[in-house]
Amino acid sequence: MHTIDLAYVGRGLHEELAAYIADQEDFYASEDVHVALRDGCTWDEERLRRCATIGLGRALLSRLTDGTPWVGLSVNTHRPLFWFLARSGLTSLSDLAGRRLAVHAPHTAPGCFTRIVLRRAGLDPDRDIKTVVRPPGDYGMDLRRLREGEIDAALVGSTMAPEAVAAEHGWEVLAWVGDHFQIPTVGLAVDPTYTDPDGPAVQAVLRAHRRALQVIRNDPDTTVRHIQTFLGGHTADEARAHYKTFIAPHFTIDGQADLAIGDRAITAVAAELGVPATVTAAEFYRTATTTS
Q: What topology is assigned to 2-79+182-289 in CATH?
């Protein structure tokens, strides 16, 4: 049996769903690979690059900013699962002007994506908004701060169904990042310095993940059952509604990247980071190397 370390660098459905299904449905075992899932959320890049990683956004930022030769081998979705959740009284992104927004740091993938979306809405994230920078997590503290009035809005991820949370508290979902910025994101990436993209362990993981993506697209009942383990604070109906709106229509079935979307995204990310776009989508998203 082959072995591989696979690190996630964020939490929630966006990051973990395909790998979780591959594990729980024994797709890894049937492909004769032992996958050690590792929490790499706080790892530095040097440690992370010695594993395969799910976080394509972080890998792309690293390749652009420090030249780490990450390559993406499989893509789960082109629409990042992050939302702007706001207290009552705010109804659009433009309403964030002068408000307090809890958000990831600018050098992180979700932080960078957020800044791109805010700029497209006509807001300068450094001047027009009072940002409260916090590390990735389950966003529970953000909900508390919203309830207590310490912040006006928060960028939240897929550890919750934000539309259900908003309905429960009388809040607003101002926008879904995936509606405003597309990028081939989450899946499988490796640094060829340490991990052979064509090696048997990597190829086995790719086959298992492609099987998981097919479950996500074609087997709602199984997928929703697994989603409920992530959305423990939600009802089955809320989990199913979240799946139908944000996951089923937007996850790939074969792990392939749309290179036109990828090139536009790389240009936007590089501009936001203030670095040259030194890699093309075809060079970074080598998804055609996946095997049957």
A: D-Maltodextrin-Binding Protein; domain 2 (3.40.190)
